[in-house]
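F.,

This is the one I mentioned.
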């Protein structure tokens, strides 16, 4: 009988944990994302949607900027997960590669801009703590993470774009 009881409690425990996670989202990240979306949409309306889209289109015509500067700005200003909404300013065919670049930059940015992805901060701080114990400064680590991150997201964006174009049958 104890085995059946334990299985039943374990089964219900999954849903209890799911409910606690959902409650955390409702009281945490969902209001934050709604506020960020409202702020972002307000800025776009104040500046003018045509001007914002025109500026974004000009910047993202260049593949290097499309997969380096644009995702960096998205992560830095809007943070994860709101940063992906910058994709609305990119042509549809570039969105998969932009998303790849943007999501790939969520970790490297945390050393200089911890707000950008607080969930990844524990990884950076774990590495940083080891370096501090070894007598190294953290500033250099943060800058190197950032620079290498920009290089990697640019490469990832370009490669993902090529793969997507090939799979989708899009001619460049």
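My design for it:
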């Amino acid at each position: 009988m104890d085995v059946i009881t334990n299985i039943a409690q374990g089964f219900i425990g999954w849903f209890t944990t799911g409910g606690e996670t959902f409650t955390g989202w409702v009281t945490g990240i969902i209001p934050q994302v709604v506020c960020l979306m409202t702020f972002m949409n307000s800025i776009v309306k104040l500046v003018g949607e045509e001007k914002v889209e025109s500026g974004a289109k000009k910047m993202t015509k260049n593949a290097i900027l499309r997969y380096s500067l644009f995702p960096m700005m998205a992560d830095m200003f809007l943070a994860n997960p709101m940063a992906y909404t910058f994709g609305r300013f990119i042509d549809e065919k570039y969105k998969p590669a932009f998303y790849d670049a943007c999501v790939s930059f969520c970790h490297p940015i945390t050393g200089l801009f911890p707000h950008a992805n607080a969930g990844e901060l524990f990884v950076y701080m774990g590495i940083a703590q080891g370096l501090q114990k070894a007598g190294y400064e953290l500033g250099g680590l943060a800058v190197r993470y950032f620079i290498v991150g920009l290089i990697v997201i640019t490469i990832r964006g370009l490669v993902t774009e090529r793969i997507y174009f090939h799979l989708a049958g899009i001619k460049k």
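Residues 48-168 form one domain.

Talk soon.
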